[in-house]
Amino acid sequence: MHVLDDALALAQPGAFVRSFVDEGMPMAELLSGASAHGRMPDSIGKLLTVFEIEKQKSHDQSAQPLIETLSHRELEVLRLISQGLSNHEIGERLFLALDTVKGHNRKIFGKLQVQRRTEAVARARELGLS
Question: What is the mean pLDDT of residues 14-33?
């Protein structure tokens, strides 16, 4: 709990929310436990509200299947994104130009109906693609 308190204290001035929310349900459970012990109620309350919104959005999206399936190459790029590789590293790994990797990213994001890499990875997991 002390580490969580420190992380919350460091994140509060910059209103860093994604750092916690991107960790998923284990973090939500940890924050709920901390809240039950009265730790930083304002910060934790805000984060738990965001978790609830994300959960609702996720539920709404998961009910919608993909409009267009991902190609084999797009699945390869998505797998490398989920491993944390940069666009440059993906290009080197797959022998693709940087602009080509970025083009695949745009197509993947469009097909998954997301805006960011972290959302793409989360959506792919929901759909059982990774």
Answer: 82
Give the mean pLDDT of the chain.
Answer: 84
Residues 55 and 88 in one domain: no
In the predicted model, is pLDDT for residue 55 greater than 90?
no
**Number of folded domains that form the chain:** 2
pLDDT bin (cut points 50, 70, 90) of residue 65 is low
Distances (CA, A) of 93 to 11, 79, 130: 34, 12, 18
31 and 58 inside one domain: yes
